[in-house]
Amino acid sequence: MKTGERMASTQGTALITGTSAGIGLVYARRLAERGYDLVLVARREDRLRTLARELEAAHSIRAEVLKADLTSDEDMRRVNQRAAGEDLSLLINNAGIGGYAPFAEVDPVLLEQLVRLHILAPMLATRAALPGMLARGRGAIINVASLLAFSGSVPPNPLPHRATYAGAKSFLVTFTRTLAGEVRGTPVKVQVVCPGMTATEFNGGYRGAMTPEDVVTASLVGLERGETVCVPGLEAADAVAALEQAEAGMRQGSKPTLAARYRTPGNA
Ligand SMILES: NC(=O)c1ccc[n+]([C@@H]2O[C@H](COP(=O)([O-])OP(=O)(O)OC[C@H]3O[C@@H](n4cnc5c(N)ncnc54)[C@H](OP(=O)(O)O)[C@@H]3O)[C@@H](O)[C@H]2O)c1
Fold first, then answer.
1. Model pTM?
2. Do residues 58 and 15 make contact, with C-beta atoms less than 8 angstroms apart?
3. What structural domains and CATH numbers belong to the chain?
4. Ligand 1 neighbours (beta carbon < 6 A)
C-alpha cells in the first residue's frame, strides 16, 4: 500500500440508492458511523458530493459518488457493475418516487418509470450483487418497500391513485421474501423494510409521521435479528407471521379441483 492510501474498511462497502435525501441519506450517515465505505447513488450529484465530503471528514471512511438516474437502462448498468464489486457487503435499494395519480389519467411514461425505479432497478442490482456475496460468504441486501404493499385494498379507504406504486412495493415484498427462502442457510441476509408515512421530502415532511432515523434504526436492528419483513411502526410483530399463515392457508387450501362456487354460472 502506498503512503497516504487508506486501508479498505473491514465492514466492506455499502451501496445505497437514493442517498441525496430522506431515508437513504440516514442509512448513509448511520453506516458511515459504523465504519462502512459507501457508494452514494442518486441524480442530484451536488448533494451527494456534499454528503460524501462530510462523511469522509467525520469518519475514517471512503464515500464514492455515483450519479445515476435509476429509470435509465444505461445508468442502471453502471450501478449494477458497481454493485458486483468485490468489496460490496451491503446493498440498499431505497430510491423511490410516489407518482400518485388516478390510474386512468396518469402519464404512461411515469408508470414505466415507477416500475423501472421500484422493480427493475432493485431486482437487477440484487442480481448483480448476490453471487459475489454468496461466494465471499458475507453480505446483506435491504429493499425499501412500503406499508402500502399490504394496504392497497384495505377498507375503509382503499388508497386510490397508488395502484402502480403499491403494486411495485408488493413486488419488493414478495421478491424479498421468496429470495430469503433461497438464501436461507447461507450467511447472506435479505430484508424488506415497509415504512408507514415517513417525514421526508417524499411527502413534504408530513408532520406526525415517523422520522427517517427511526425507520433506519428498525431496519438495522431487524437485520441483526434476522428479520426478513421489517415494519418499523408495527408493535404487534406477530401480525407478519399471521399474514404468512393466512397465505399458507390459501395455498394449501387450493386443490386441483374447481372450487364449488365456480360450478354454477354467475349472473354476469
Ligand atoms: N416517505 C414516506 O412516507 C415513505 C413511506 C414508505 C416507503 N417509502 C419509500 O422509502 C424510499 C425512500 O423515500 P424517502 O421518503 O426517503 O424519499 P425522498 O426523501 O424523496 O428521497 C428519495 C430518494 O430517491 C432518489 N431518487 C428518486 N428518483 C430517482 C431516480 N430516478 N434515480 C435515482 N435516484 C432517485 C432521490 O434522489 P434524486 O432526486 O437526487 O435522484 C432521493 O435521494 C422510497 O423507496 C419510498 O418509496 C417512503
1. 0.96
2. no
3. 13-240 (3.40.50.720)
4. 17-24, 42-44, 68-71, 94-97, 117, 144, 146, 195, 197-198, 200-203, 212
